[in-house]
Amino acid sequence: MKKWIVLFSMAVVLVGCSATEEKKSNNADIRKEFSSSVEAPAIKTEVDQSSGLSDYIEGKAISEIKEVVSIREDGFKDEVTIEGKEFNLAIPSSLTDKKLRLKVALKNGKKFNTVIKLPKRASIDSYKNFASQMNRNMNDINDKVKTNFPLTVKRETLIAADENNAQTWIHVLDGELVGLSMIGSEDAGDELATIISSFIMIYEVDNDKVFSAQNDFSKTGEKTSVTSNGYMFTFDHNDEYLYIDIIKTTKNMEI
């Protein structure tokens, strides 16, 4: 994992003064909420809200699962992946509190119903303000950067840019930026560093804290999160790709 250290060597040089830091998280546990329904003590679920795009739900039953039906409040049914006693699914993050109803059928014939609460996310910024500032600042930092955020996005989850082996996703609801997610290969160092550096400067994030978390991730290879000035950065990897998510923290994420 040491190869990922290069991604922020540039960021340390680019970003000078650090902002006043808030409560921190040194691992991913702070943004996980466990929920076991009284109606379904045999089903244990875990909600991970560290992603910039979605809420991830993982569940485990006491025996092999036959079927899981996930129903949103508007009646929409989500696709659920089942593997033995475990299941998982992803729900787009929301700026309002949501509930998800699960119907779980086990292969032994038993059935359970449970309701999962999905706390609302906080807006990072209006998307228009975010995009205009980021585009201008990234170009000032590094004139070779190719990432450029579209200026008008009202309500959509999309790939905002796919440049220099760095793919940048945004999740926008009603003109508000809910989350930012980046995927990059080993060759995406300069592009990712410029994007992160620009965000750190604009939103007065403590660069030292972010670099320290990224360095810990590089050494251990374990998913790592850190919070500064109300923004959470999460580092993870899959095979040869680095994943970086940025969200605005909420009260339920604080420790």
Structural overview:
With 255 residues, the protein is an alpha+beta fold. The chain is built from 4 helices and 16 strands. It has helices spanning 6-14, 127-141, 189-202, 207-220; strands spanning 32-35, 43-48, 54-61, 65-72, 77-78, 81-83, 86-92, 98-106, 111-118, 125-126, 156-163, 166-173, 176-184, 224-228, 231-238, 241-248. The strands form 3 sheets. Strands 10, 11, 12, 13, 14, 15 and 16 form a 7-stranded antiparallel β-sheet that branches. Helix 1 packs parallel to helix 3, helix 1 (6-14) packs antiparallel against helix 4 (207-220) and helix 2 (127-141) crosses helix 3 (189-202). It is elongated, with a radius of gyration of 19 Å. It starts with 5 loop residues before the first helix and ends in a 7-residue tail after the last strand. The model is unreliable at 1-6 and 8-40 (pLDDT under 50).
Q: Using the alpha-carbon principal axes, give the shape.
A: elongated
Low-confidence stretches: 1-6, 8-40
Mean pLDDT: 85
| Radius of gyration (Å) | 19 Å
Class from secondary-structure proportions: alpha+beta
Number of strands: 16
Count of runs of 4 or more consecutive helical residues: 4
Q: How many strands, what sense, and barrel or not for the largest sheet?
A: 7 strands, antiparallel
Query: What share of residues are in beta strands?
Result: 35-45%
Sketch the topology as an H/E string, one letter per element: HEEEEEEEEEEHEEEHHEEE
- Characterize the quaternary organization of these chains: single chain
> N- to C-terminal separation?
28 Å
What percent of the residues sit in helical stretches (DSSP H or I)? 10-25%
